[in-house]
Design brief:
Length: 282
């Protein structure tokens, strides 16, 4: 955490840190009341321009229904960047307030931990170039793959797969209708990945979305494909009757070389020339 804070200071930013940055109990960084108070304090403080999350883990699902969204409606949208467990609050802020937040690297996980040049470049590109169309190009030695051809355009909705599914049919998930869903995850065994896809199917998500981007499902599938279903098997089973474009192996997720993405931002897919483009904001 200290190294990550030093990274931001060297970039010229003044840093204010949360009360329980290095404390907590078990897998929660402080009790729910304290964490809730910290989140609201930083989001509401006009002197703070951006909130950089330190790490993921678990705990935001516990307090989504306690955040004072009515109070937050009275302030301009604020930059919030993080991924993994942070997906939960990103979904809620988009649904409740229309805020576009950023799924990207975090202070302890990346900034202070041998920050990848690819990830660093794309983070600042996306944060600083709101008025530019940005084509997202995977690392040279790790190209994106096309599961199904097609074109789609819409708002980019998603993040960590296992944080999206608990929000389905709640008041904390943005509309998926006509939009592009992006998913990624880490350390989920194959049967749980399958369960997550089946959950989307049972909630009719595939009836609504205009496109699907599958990022990295790290440490989810065994190297020996005879031991379990492959991603292709699961996609065949759940997506067979639909015709929206599907891209896989996108450089996004719990990986060293990853894009930063605007959750709720406009995005375009065109598999005919293998392009994924973030569309400039109005």
């Amino acid at each position: 955490t200290k190294l990550g804070i030093e990274y931001l200071k060297k970039k010229g930013y003044k840093i204010v840190t949360g009360t329980y940055l290095t404390k907590g109990k078990f897998y929660i960084a402080g009790n729910d009341e304290i964490r809730l108070a910290n989140i609201e304090k930083f989001l509401l403080d006009p002197a703070i321009d951006a909130v950089f999350c330190v790490r993921g883990g678990y705990g935001l699902l516990r307090i989504l229904d306690q955040i004072n969204y009515e109070k937050l409606k009275n302030i301009p949208p604020k930059i919030l960047i993080g991924y993994s467990d942070i997906t939960a609050i990103q979904m809620a802020l988009l649904r409740k307030l229309g805020w576009v937040t950023y799924s990207g690297p975090m202070v302890a996980s990346e900034f202070g931990n041998n920050f990848s040049h690819f990830s660093e470049k794309w983070m600042w590109n996306v944060l600083n170039k709101h008025n530019t169309n940005l084509e997202l190009i995977n690392p040279e030695n790790d190209p994106i793959e096309i599961y199904r051809e097609g074109k789609a355009e819409g708002n980019l909705i998603g993040g960590c797969f296992s944080l999206i599914t608990p929000l389905l049919n709640t008041e904390y998930i943005p509309t998926l209708k006509g939009n592009i869903l992006i998913i990624e995850d880490v350390g989920e065994p194959v049967y749980r990945v399958d369960k997550l896809f089946q959950t989307l199917k049972l909630h009719n998500v595939f009836e609504e979305i205009s496109g699907l981007i599958v990022g990295k499902l790290s440490d989810c599938f065994p190297k020996n494909s005879t031991k379990a279903f492959t991603l292709g098997d699961i996609l065949d089973n759940t997506l067979g009757k639909y015709n929206f474009p599907v891209i896989t192996n996108f450089a996004y997720g719990h990986v060293k070389h990853r894009f930063t993405l605007p959750v709720g931002g406009k995005i375009k897919i065109d598999t005919s020339n293998t392009k994924i483009v973030l569309i400039k904001e109005d």
